[in-house]
Fold these 3 entries.
Entry 1:
Amino acid sequence: MKEKVVVGMSGGVDSSVAAYLLKEQGYEVIGVTMQIWQDEEQAAQEENGGCCGLSAVEDARRVAQILGIPHYVMNFKREFREKVMDYFTEAYLQGCTPNPCIACNRYVKWESLLKRSMEIGADYIATGHYARIRKLSNGRYAVGNAASAVKDQTYALYGLTQYQLAHTLMPVGDYTKEEIRGIAGREGLPVADKPDSQEICFIPDNDYAAFIDRAAPDRVPGKGKYVTKEGAVLGEHLGITHYTIGQRKGLNLAMGHPVFVTEIRPESNEVVIGEAEDVFGETLVCGNLNFMGMEDLTGSKEALAKIRYAHPGERCLMERTGTDTITCRFHHPVRAITPGQAVVFYEDGYVLGGGTILKSKNLDE
């Protein structure tokens, strides 16, 4: 009897080829597109489809028809709003810069989809992520780096649990993007040349501040003061939801040289401005921990740490400093340690674990 796998089909080339590869490997494949858009008007207005738009359903349905697999649409609107959109808004209001894709992966694409898939008798779920699931010598599951370093998506998957990893397949991780597009073209899949979605799917115009204004109009703090770390007032900003750590453009400050956002203070509605060197830090504290390749951290351990998706990583010493906190000390200063983003720890090409960055501090503080 064939093992059954539910493939999350976003209408893109990666998940489409994932479905094809798994069928070729002998699985009974069911395609599912997750309905997460909040209303028909929003979805219809979205130009590029992405993983939220109505076009995603049509593209996925066409691919499923060509592959000869069943295709369904599952409604995850409530889960997506609560776990992703509301979280995104709340984080910005608190002066943080969230990563909604990590939240979506953990709570929607895996927690909710896996639960429903198991209810219909599936053995696994699968996605088109560029990563590989490894079972380590210690018996634990971890996501390992993809064959293509350029497309590697392990950073956004650090939040997955052992149960989720044990019931997940990621066939795309063994290929480069060019190879995936080549397979799609060879098999006549209509999404072979479909462009990758570059923006946050529920904010297609990329205007985060406007989205938050609409989502929480009575809570947006509005204009405030630009200040130096010593407290000198430099001017007026548009509101803390318009800024992130390390930002240089769009500040509208005539300082005569480039300056940067170094801190956001939601309690006083201030944005702290500093010099280029002020954006670098040696230490961070993270919480909301999830361990993957290792069961826990009781003392200290050397690792490679990434503090954003595109960060190449820096060696660090991570040390357990609280019930749910790790302090990470980098061997060399890193740029723009940003509260709300994730720090993900790696060893030998797989994820040890990670957490949400709570704060950055210099060693002399």
Entry 2:
Amino acid sequence: MSERDDFQQIQKLSLEQIQTQRASQNQVLLGQLIEMNDEEIKDRIEVELNDNPALEEASDSHQDDYDYGSSDEKDESQDDKDSQELGNSNEDPFESPYTVTDEDYDDRNDDGLGYIQTKRRQYNPDVYRPPVVSEASMYETLMTQVRERDLDEHQLVIAEYIIGEIEDDGLLRRPIPSICGDIISKENIFVSPQEVQEVLEVIQDLEPAGIAATSTRECILLQIDDMKGVDIDAARLAREIVDKHFDAYEKHHYDKIIDLLNISETAFQQADKIIKRTNPRPGNIFNSGERLANASHITPDFIVTADNDKLHLTVVNDIPELQISESYEIAYKHIAGNKADSSSLSDEAVNIKRQYENATNFIMLLKMRQEKLHKIMKFIMLKQQEFFITGDTMSLKPMVLNDIAEATGYDTSTISRAQQNKYVDTNWGIFPLKYFFVKRLNDNDASATAIKEIIKEMIDGEDKTKPLTDDRLCATLQERGYDIKRRTVAKYRESMRIPVARQRKTL
């Protein structure tokens, strides 16, 4: 073999290694882009625009001309292209029971359950205003309120430390002397326990009632004191029960309390109603929904609308269309047309070539991200179509990552990344994609979510003087044909924060 042949062989191996390395890097970068939500992807694009002069925003947006669901043939060819460019040849085209087109008509699916029309549009806040899910944190909400109080700078510092120590359930379990020590050591200012106590009382007067209480007992007392329009005698009795007999009340020793206070059963029941109106975990209202990191509201990534039995999927696209700068296009073509060896290129030419290829690669990966997200969401919509049409949680079908992986040909890691921090706006509100991933219960065609709903309905309708035990709930479910064990019932009940039968019992 001649030296020239040796050189060509080395060059070929080097090129293959570079291509393999680029494919691997692209896989990693695509995974990162898929995991990003709308705000994060816009931030990433802004970084690329600032760092790479070969990349720029398109002056005229033509993004709406591309329909991700235009045809299965288009999906297949694009998937083949994706596989080649990323070095992955195992992705199969998505086969849908629906005929999806880019025309203005819809084709009914074989099951007769509904229609689907898929399209993509630019997110326009002037045209579409999705319901906003407030995601203000407990700290932000309380600090906003406390700043409206007549506190000096010294007291505001104390307030910040107290609010920062409140736990997720809304209670303050850190002792006041410890808070004092933190402020003294970190802020280098002296504060007394009395000063901290005074500011704490101001915070305990904020909304929601019971916030920053130092115990469950104090939390309930604060809420009873805050109640308006209740019977004075019943409220006074409720306060006495919680203040002096809370341990017995927690253990449901109601007869013992009645005897100790020498009151009638009717009087106790009236006081009991007031106590049960309180929320012993007031901080939970700040943790009721999925929260986007560093965001004050949720912008949906998808819109699924139901019009009678028709479903329409829209991929919300609030990211700018990108293109290669014209000057870089010209420069790159000139460099590519130069027959000289790449090692003889000037540093400037090498830099232009690198920036051009990085920009082209980034645009390609963004397009692939959108296509993959569309295909994944389309499967979720098809699988959970009854929910999107009716809003009935009981209609949610078992669905796991592998179900989508098998249908789309994507790796489960891609599916997992895609459902992170993504939201879909529906006729029934905004839901995180994670909401639609529900476990199958043994061999039944029933999801864990559906079983939880059945358990909740049974408990809501039970005789509160004789509440249903986990054994009884399990037996009833088995009578209805669900193969479920008692410990599973107990796990589902606990996940819904429903207490055991003994603690649900009332007189």
Entry 3:
Amino acid sequence: MHLARGVPKNLLTLTLLCALLTGCGGGGASATDQVDAVRASYSSLTAYTASAAITANCSGRVYSYEADFSGDLTSGVMTVTGPDNIAGCSVSWDETGTVLDWEQVTLDTGDLNGDGLSPVDAMPTLLTCTTTGLLLECSLEAEGAELYAEFENPENPACTALCWFDLTTHGLLRAELTSEGQTLVTMVFDSFLLESDPPSE
């Protein structure tokens, strides 16, 4: 069967116009809608638990370890689970600051970019970026099962957070913190469970 003359060209033009109008990293309006939904979940977050493998690039040295996380939007705890020589070390944070807790051992977290960003700052930074950071780019990936979003850190515009979210649970799958184009911290999550207040009527 042959299409009438001019129809394929018109369809192609319409498709291109739709792609240009939807924007946001090729994900279209649906990607931005999904970002809004994810942000709503994190803005109303009451508690979360997570487990991640972390890689930090600090002054040319690379550190890798695993950690469990728990907390809310204003406070939290990171407990190192590996490697064995630092397992059990925990770092807690709240609005008053950060506290390292482990007997006679200092966890070298480094000052990664001269602005105080270190791996122990990664989780609260990700939460801040997700809830209040400027959205720079977004798209749907993995055949629509994942959402990619890049946010500017409102507390440090030179820092950006690249995040991949599970669209079913809104939990983080992977995240990267960058400064001036350099990746400083990479987190790959084995799990990320969040509890949020239901939306107000």
